[in-house]
Amino acid sequence: MARALTQLELLQELAPVAEENVNRHLKIARDWNPHDYIPWDEGKNYPALGGPDYDPEQSQLSEVAKAAMITNLLTEDNLPSYHRVIADNFSMDSAWGHWVGRWTAEENRHGIVMRDYLVVTRGVDPAALEADRMVHMTNGYDPMLAAAGRADELEEHADELGILHSVAYVTFQELATRVSHRNTGKACNDPIADKMLQRIAADENLHMIFYRNICGAGMDLAPDQTLRAVTDIVTNFQMPGAGMPNFRRHGVLMAKHGIYDLRQHLEEVVQPVLRKWRVFEREDFTSEGEKTREELAAFLEQLEKDTLKFEEMRDRALAREAKKRERQAS
């Protein structure tokens, strides 16, 4: 395997690519205001100002839509954790620093508009939502370490975790979030929520393109090293909400009802990105890189099998639920 580049060398070599992509992003990104997407005329004061308390009957969202909205919002709420990781692994100088600030500012809009929507429309219990926010943000989250499967080996592998793991993770994470937001919008059965979440998803797609281009340049610069990072991320991927209150229950609901499931993860997130990088067509890996590629291929083959098993189980569960509803209705 060729000598691994240091984090400083990677940052220096990739700096021109970062600058090019920051400029590209600024040219095509659309500024928007969170307050423009909120039906303010539906709002009422809460008890502290003499209004009625939240009642579950006030919500127009299904249980699936509630689970998805809460999960997506708490993910956005934990932005300080993601900012810290990105800032630690990038440089705060030049284009790197400008991107970290711009990305953070754009992502913050998402949490603002989603919370305003849920509070104004009384879509979920705002007190419970705030309690969950406090727990999730207090715990924090290091998505790169979790996704790279190194959390229990931090001291031994700390030097391996840097910009390549970071940009690989956020490439897949931003695309996964885009899929989740778009499908959540549809599940809300509300044109206002759908429009809002489509706007957020458009941001996430542009963010994904920035990170995908940086990681792609890393693949050209240091093929073996970058593929190792990508394989670590893909084989240990977790959505950024892992660890938040009720994450497992909400995740099961979201997967069961098509918000974000294994098939979408494989076919709409992982495979398109790997194709863009031409991971299985490249001829610039050393023997070590070839071993890593074989490891990745084996994982994807198993993921396809796991996806089929999940779909069979889900279809049976949904069929049982449909029969139960028919019996109750008759």
Automatic annotation (TrEMBL):
Protein residues bound to Fe cation 2: 107, 174, 204, 207
Cofactor binding comment, as recorded: Binds 2 iron ions per subunit.
Gene Ontology terms describing biological process: fatty acid biosynthetic process
Pfam families given in the database record: FA_desaturase_2
SUPFAM superfamilies cross-referenced by the UniProt entry: Ferritin-like
Cofactor dependency: Fe cation; Fe(2+)
Residues the record lists as binding Fe cation 1: 76, 107, 110, 204
Alphabetical keyword list: Fatty acid biosynthesis, Fatty acid metabolism, Iron, Lipid biosynthesis, Lipid metabolism, Metal-binding, Oxidoreductase
Entry's Gene Ontology molecular function annotations: metal ion binding; stearoyl-[ACP] desaturase activity
Cellular-component GO terms for this entry: cytosol
Family: Belongs to the fatty acid desaturase type 2 family.
Assembly description: Homodimer.
Protein name: Acyl-ACP desaturase
Native source organism of the sequence: Gordonia polyisoprenivorans
